[in-house]
Amino acid sequence: MYLWTPDSIRFRIDAAEYGGFDAEIAAQVMRLLPKNARICDAGCGLGYLGLALSTKCESVTAVDTNAEALAVLRQNIVRYGAFNIHAIQDDLFFMHPETPYDAMVFCFFGRVGETLRAAKAQCAGRTIMIKKNWKNHRFSLEEKPLKGYTLRHTTAELDEMKIPYDVATFPIEMGQPFRSLDDALLFFQTYAEESDGRILPEQIRSRLVRTDSEHYPYYLPSPKTLGIVTVNTGDIPDSIE
User: Fold this and answer.
1) How many Cβ atoms from other residues are within 10 Å of residue 136's Cβ?
2) Tell me: the pLDDT tens digits for 148-157?
3) N or C: less crowded end of the chain, CB within 10 Å?
4) Radius of gyration of the chain measured on its C-alpha atoms
5) How far is CA 79 from CA 83, 192, 216, in A?
6) How far apart are CA 130 and CA 142, in angstroms?
7) In what side-by-side order are the strands of the sheet with 218-220?
């Protein structure tokens, strides 16, 4: 489970406000949804993907266990007038909506088995999984294997379970803006692997680029590729180990 802190919340807000990659992910997801879809943004975090999806969907149910993350979403619902989003603090994997969703979106959230079990219980349409399609940790100073479920792990498990799926990849820029060099240092100290040891300003300065932004004069580029895996819920077995 991802642990939100005041610093990680602030960094994620800055990335959403500056970069707009949530809208790019939402555009890929929308190609897979029926018109007027009722969807669930599973493990929504601060809810920026759900906000982007809400402009094209009938309704979005955004679920997370973290109250601080959902507080940001609720503020943005009012800020943007996105009143077709319903923010719910709960454990997604034990929920049972009265009416099944048309689709569930799991963006960087959930292991394959628990994702499929939740979708089987809650969704009448498509299960959409957004997965990282790279090998190493983005914010370590050295090459460190990425932890968690990547696109490769996901498709391998689906193959093993003999569950049919569609898969596509798309390029995306997922960099991080900074308000100062001190902010950049704090970011690396927050997200770097423990084995990186003490991080010094001169180690990260070369990785940053200057911008024309008054609020975010520094930027850490991060061009990546994401995978989007789609499973029809009817193809999920009733029992998943």
Assistant:
1) 10
2) 679 999 999 9
3) C
4) 18
5) 10, 33, 22
6) 25
7) 176-178, 218-220, 209-210
| DSSP string covering the chain | -----HHHHHHHHHHHHHH-HHHHHHHHHHTTS-TT-EEEEET-TT-HHHHHHHTTSSEEEEEES-HHHHHHHHHHHHHHT-TTEEEEES-GGG---SS-EEEEEEES---HHHHHHHHHHHEEEEEEEEEE--SB-TT-SS--BPPS-BHHHHHHHHHHHT---EEEEEEEE--EEESSHHHHHHHHHHHS-GGG-S--HHHHHTT-EE-S-SS--EEE--EEEEEEEEEEGGGS-S---
Reported as a single tens digit per residue, the pLDDT across 31-68 is 999 889 999 999 999 999 999 999 999 999 999 999 99
In single-letter form, the type of residue at position 173 comes to: E
What's the CA gap between 40 and 240, in Å, rounded? 21
**In contact, 215 and 203? CB cutoff 8 Å:** no
Task: Identify the CA nearest to 41 among candidates 83, 102, 132.
Answer: 102
Matching residue, tokens 């998943």? 240
Parts of the chain with a pLDDT under 50: 195
CB-CB contact of 63 with 42 (8 Å): yes
- Which residues, in sequence order, are CB contacts of 68 under 8 Å at separation 6+? 4, 6, 9
Model confidence pTM above 0.90: yes
Amino acid 206 reads: S
